[in-house]
Amino acid sequence: MSTTQPTRRAWAVLFVLCGAIFLEGIDVSMLGVALPSIRADLGMSTGSLSWVVSAYVLGYGGFMLLGGRAADLWGRRRVFLVCLGVFVLFSGLGGLATEGWVLVAARFVTGVAAAFMTPAGLSIITTTFAEGPLRNKALLVYAGTAAGGVSLGMVVGGLLT
Predict the structure, then answer these.
(1) pTM of the model
(2) Which residues pair with 3 in a beta bridge?
């Protein structure tokens, strides 16, 4: 559905995609500020605490290429929506964790879900907006929203801690 003029549907799609990448940014960055509190609350050692961050990064980095291929095979929209659901579910599970291993496992699954969600979202943008200034503007809004989520995540993490 490539368009030469911005439509309401195209901007609505971008709004949803921006919401997802914003959540992803907040989820990633708020944890860094909260690590000392997480260690105290869950009784984790300093060595095991590093896995809270590493599990997400391993899932994200390790499955990014597979996420893009899955979007090609099963459909961008389906992969995006399913993985957004998994991302939200396991992010919430991680927030409710009472054991360190549950938090680490939830962070890994959240990273894998994000690895599938991100390329699917970018692909949706490139197929929804026509090449040129309109697509460039959509990608700029998407990237700016992601950066805003990462920045705001540190503030939110500090406030929650």
Answers:
(1) 0.89
(2) 129
